[in-house]
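Folds abound. A case:
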Amino acid sequence: MTEKSADKVAQEVGARLTPVLLDAQRTNLAGIRLLDWQGVVIGGREDIGKSLAHISEVQLALQGHYASTIRQRTIRRSQPPLASFSRGTGVRVFVAYPIVAGDRLYGAMLLSRTPSSILEHLHSQQEKIALAAAIVLLLIVVLVVFTSYAIARPLHGLIEQTKRFAGGDKKALEPLAKPVTEEVALLSQSFSEMARNLEHRSEYIRNFAAHVSHEFKTPLAAIQGAIELLEEHAEGMSAEKRGQFLRNIGQDSERLKRLVDRLLEMARADVMEAAVGECEVAPVVEQLRARYQAVGLSLTLAGASAARARVPREIVETMLSNLFDNSRQNGASQVEITIQHSDGQLSIRVADNGAGISAANAENIFTPFFTTHRDDGGTGLGLGIVRALLTAYGGDIAVVPATNGAVFAVTIPAAGN
């Protein structure tokens, strides 16, 4: 600041306004300086008669523009623990306002103040802060209650449901009656579906094990009986009789071998993961034609012969071979294969001129070990293997009612979809 002579009229105005400025200063605790058009202090507590025209914000104000800035203060005492915007920090705000009447600039007002401390501001707003804290606390309580009702309670119900299911309670398979939220409802529905699948699978395994036990017991009992007879009566038995018993043992052993082989195929089909691959169905039928022609089964192909299935070639071959074997066991001499392509699916119709399938047997035709040709070496697993393979690749098989022979409708995904 430098000494400079102020405007006389401005000095008189400043002298009159100084009491008002000092009174305002006691209220707002800000430093107030009234400047004339030259930038000389004419009113306020300090610096009367000194020029502040060299200060940047004053220069802008004397040009008719509002200006403000923040400057660092020199602190001669130790800073308080809270060193943010407080009176103990080295920060002070300066604001300069131009005093304009009409088109004429008469001077400027320079205000300066150190911002209030955070603690002082918080203390001045303690009622609002207390209200905000109460609202936050209330929201937390509401959130806890809602969480307990909407999430914790249904989850505890689901945990109790799993315990009941593990204890053998079949009623625990039903979804929660009041899941509250959509997510818990989906979780409960998924659990119910999983539990039903597990129960269905367990029942399937129990039935399958009972069938396996029955199927193995019959030939094993026959083998054991024949061996006991040979051991006890071999010396007094004719050569022809001994030969008959030995042939029976061989036939039963062969049946056991077929059962084991089929069971392995069934197990692989049940747990098979679909492999990537595709093939034309017609070449597979042509390849099998010669094999079955040699055993008296004629194959004819009709329909979309160029259609491709989104299934590996070996799967299509296994599926068709089992169906052709089933036709041959039922006395068929001719099988007609018709292929149709529609809506991304291949429909394969396999019709023979054999003995056909009765309505009663049609309901059990895909049941493992169900066969009407056990004496001819049938295991009752072929069609079950076909269904398991098709299921793994998104296909299906069904019996179609027919007046002559047996008709199967096979659906498999078409390639290029």
Summary: The CA atoms of residues 103 and 139 lie 57 Å apart. The chain is about 50% helix and 20% strand. The chain has four domains: 2-116, 129-210, 214-270, 279-413. Confidence is low (pLDDT under 50) at residues 81-86.
